[in-house]
Predict the structure.
Amino acid sequence: MQPRDVASYTFLAFAWGLSFLLLLHVVAAFGWIGAVTFRCFIAGGLLLLIARLTGRSLHFNAGWISFAVVGATTVAGQLIGLSYATPRIGTAMAAIFVAAIPLFSMVIAQLWGLEKITPVRVLGLVLGTIGIIMLVGFPAVPVTSGFLIGCLAMVGSTFSAAFGSNYASRHLSGTGPWEVTIGSFLAGGVIAFPLLWFVPVPVTPQPVDYLYLVALATLMSALTYVLYFGLVKSIGATAAISVEFAVTVVAVLVGALILDEPLTVLQLLGGAVIIVGCGLVLGILRLPQPVR
């Protein structure tokens, strides 16, 4: 990776890892649908406004369908699942699920013929699956229906993120990261907006809640996704999405040290197994070659 890519990668790890702190406040104030809807409109609208004010040329030649697909998956699908699940299963638990995104990304890339499957990658998938079973099967909290639904929501969230990233890499490779971010966030907001009828804003937000929402939408959505889609274009979807490993580490530390969330030893081991599995899938880790 180029130094610029390394800088973007590092910033994404810390920004998305710390975003869980703001996410909990925003979801409590605006609801899990409102948090996503308003976040999308603010992020997309802000970038569009900045582009207009600075005279930046934007080209949306890829067509609305491509932006709608990425908006429905990487943006709306991922963020709705994350916003629903995090208050129910905890920041640290949700963060460990996030580490499974590269596994889904590799499977999708295989099915689309974008990457070649190898025995080592199959081993990585097996380990990742075992890690998820350890994560869900041995929680530090009572296994309630809400907990299980939250886990399912995180699986849907991670799959959506992986699908959208591969789709953007395949169908929006010639589109700039500003256009991809603006188009997908505005599309995600439009997709999520009707759901407010079923999941309205639960309380009257306080001024500080709007501050949290704006910070989440600008610093941890608009800016980060411009950098992320830039990475997808520069180094590829699977390599870019491996940043979720670092995001998981940061978010788990936030949950355990700042929010005092419980985790069992088996869950931590499950998270480690997922990361090892993803490392094999991505080629970051390699098995020792037999000596001849």
